[in-house]
Every structure is written in structure tokens, then in C-alpha cells.
Amino acid sequence: MAKVKKKAASRKVKTFVLDTNVLLHDPQALESFVDNIIVLPMAVIEELDKFKTHNDELGRSARQTIRRLDKLRENGNLRDGVPIAHGGKLRIVSASHDFADAGLEHGLADNRILQVAYGLHGQGERVIFVSKDINARVKCDALGLDAKDYERSKVNFDELYSGYGEVVTAKRTVDTFFKKTVMEMPRLGGYPNQFLTLRDRSNPKRTALARVLQPGVLTHLTKTNEKVWNITSRNKEQRLALELLMDPEVQIVTLVGKAGTGKTLLALAAALHKTLRNGRYDRILVSRPVIPMGKDIGYLPGAKEEKMSHWMQPIFDNLTFLLREEIPGGKAKRKAKPASVQDRIDRLLKEGTIEMEALTYIRGRSIPRQYVIIDEAQNLTPHEVKTIISRAGEGTKMVLTGDPFQIDNPYLDASSNGLTYAAERLKEQEISGHITLHSSERSKLAAIAAEYL
Predict the structure, then answer these.
(1) pTM greater than 0.90 (yes/no)
(2) In this predicted structure, what is the pLDDT of residue 361?
């Protein structure tokens, strides 16, 4: 009899109390809790109301959630609870005086949200507080409540797909690969655009580098991609990255790596080469999320264009390096008074060949025949990355670069950001490619800093 009671108790419906940041992170979160009760504290509705006028992804997420709640009103009274998808139920609850006092300062919205979770727990409900805010989860734990991060759209960063691997095989297999343009190895498998080092079992020093066209089908790397624009790859990972960056058939490329591994430089070099020399794309579009290390962009001097020029300075630094010996069109400048690097950059910007844009203004656009680089993509949510990629028109290539160890968004981490999420979720797609870069090539000092600090 005791076993029956225990089994029944384990099936007790859970009450998930959602923090505001969960709905701002993913406006589809209301559909993610199957066969359970979702509770939104009134303070969450008030915070959504504050965000709804923002002209950014947070504002759009707030508006989408509010519209969804308004639609659900047709199913009944939100205070008493209304049915939602997958057998769930949604309620909106205020921090009633009927609840036991959790001892929190009442003036803060975060605390009013926690007060609801604490009160429902005191009434015997099986409460789980869900928040992207680490401090809120710590507070919850101190109150004796179960607190969880929002797990949807998360990947296991420790097992993140790297884009390459190694296979130890027979000598004749390596010999055959060197003789053929394309070789079939059905048992090998692999993901499209993955790279494999074939290592001779009888002579481990003898290897061949192959690219997977489709599972079980291998080909060689393109020799013309060894040097791009005016740079040459400095290690194997950079060489593999260039192979993907230069292939127009690979329409989405994700590059993950620490500072100095060359992610942005490689992407810009390939973009210049494919746009200015090959004419494959009409324009280069570069953007970065406006999430500063410290004060917001509003504290930077000047009008919007000047603010963006300050915020895009890392991109200008890379362009300066790439254009120092080249002019648009790829011919060396040997006149008595050569144009300065800044003049060349200004010309490309003025002609619209290179466009710098804030991510806020990309939503709603259709972007055809452009080489798009989204730098610092680790600061984007999976929902934001999906929104950006969906802007791609015919003939457009998207490149996402970033360092998951340097995330400035307080509600993201190495496993939940849009960059690593895209790399893992798209690995089976034929038009997608990914490389994780480890070696810092910026300078010896930068390499030491990346590894030891």
C-alpha cells in the first residue's frame, strides 16, 4: 500500500512559477511545460508591460507574450486558470496577503515574484521556480524552494560538436583517398561538412585530411583556399574554417573560439575575397549585438553613426589589418601617394560594399546576395539567432562567430547561448558547417592571456 502512495505522489502535478526573464528569453516558453501548471506572478505581467515598448528583441518577446496571454483569456479566467497546449494550465497570481511572508523586501519586483512561489509552496503545491537569473535562483534556494534554469534550447557545451575528428584506418584506405577525387566509405558516417583526419594504422605519422560531403562520402580540401585575400591560415583549424567560409554552398557557418583564434579576421578575409575579387556577393554586412562590458552604448560620444563606429571598432581593426597591403579589387597599390588604409575603408563604406548595422535593425529585412557576419554571437539567445538567420535571402551566406567563455549577457551561459545552440542543432544540415578553434594566433602575449588568465 505504501508503494502505491509513493507512486501516486511522484505523479503529483508540478507548479512552475516563471520569472520574467524566461519569457523574454523565449516567448514560446508557455508551451514548454507539458501536463503541468504554469504560474505567472502579477509582477511578471507588470515587468512585461515595461519592456513592451522597447524596439529590440526583448520588446518583441514581451509583446509576443502579452498577445499570447490576451488570446488565452478567451479560454476562461486567467486568475482561476486556463488550459494551454499539451494538457497544461496557466494561472496569473498576485502576491496575496494570504501567503506566508517570505521575509523579502516587498518593494522589489523580483521579490514579489519569489513571494508568489513561496506562498504557493506554503499551500502545499509542488513548486518549481524557473529563472535565467542566477541570483534569483540562489534566493529561492535560501527560501527552501526548488529552483531551475530554463533548460529549453540548451546544449551540452562539454560535448559540443567541434566540426572535425580523426579516424585510424588501413594503409590502403589512405592510398585510395589520395588517388580519388571522391571516395565512399559508407561505414564511416560523419556529418555534412565535417573534416576528418585519416591516419594510417601502420604508419601513424602518415595522414590525409578529408571533408565529408555527405555521410560516408569524402573529398579533398580545395587548394585555392589555402590563401585568402592577403592572409594564410596559421594552423589546421584555421585552414578548415577557410574551407567553409569560402564555399558558397555552405550557407551558414559557425565559428567558436577564444580571443585571438582568428574567427572574425578569417570571416572578413573570406568576405572580402568572395565579394570584391570573385563577385559572388553584392555586399558585406557586419553586425554585433550591443551588449557592452560596462556602460551601455548610450554613454559613447556622438550621434548614432558615431556610436556605432565606436562599438564596431574591433571590426575596423581587422579591416585595417586586411587592407593594409590591398586596395578594393585586389591589386597592389604602388603609386607615389597610395591611398591610406582608412581611405580604402571609407570608400568601401561609402559605396555600400561594406555595411555596418546594429542587430536591432536587421529584423524585418530580407537580405539577398550578401555575406553576413554576426560577431560576438555568443551574446545572442537561440531565439535571436533564429530571427537573424531567417532574414537570409537567396544567395546569402551567414557567418556567426564568438567566444562562449566571454558572455556579457547576464541570462546566457556557454550552453544556452545562440551560437553554440546553432552549431549543435544545425550540424546535420548539408548547407551548414562548424569549426571550433583552440589556438590563439594573435600574438604570444594574447595566447598566454587566453590560456592562463
Answers:
(1) no
(2) 77
The residue assigned the cell 575579387 is 277
| 400 and 374 Cβ atoms separated by less than 8 Å | yes
Rounded distance between C-alpha atoms, residue 254 and residue 185, angstroms: 26
Over residues 182-199, the pLDDT tens digits come to 999 988 889 999 999 999
- For CATH 3.40.50.300, the residue range(s) in the chain are 227-452
Q: Are strands 397-402 and 252-257 parallel, antiparallel or unpaired?
A: parallel
State the CATH class of domain 153-220: mainly beta
Domain 227-452, second-level architecture:
3-Layer(aba) Sandwich (3.40)
Q: Write down the CATH number for the domain with range 12-148.
A: 3.40.50.1010
CA angle 202, 205, 207 (to 5 degrees): 90
pLDDT tens for each residue of 396-452: 999 999 999 999 888 899 999 999 999 999 999 999 999 999 988 877 787 777 777
Closest CA to 423 of 411, 405, 435: 435
Mean pLDDT, residues 153-168: 94
Task: Note whether 441 and 234 are within 8 A (CB).
Answer: yes
Which ranges in the chain are annotated with CATH 3.40.50.1010?
Answer: 12-148
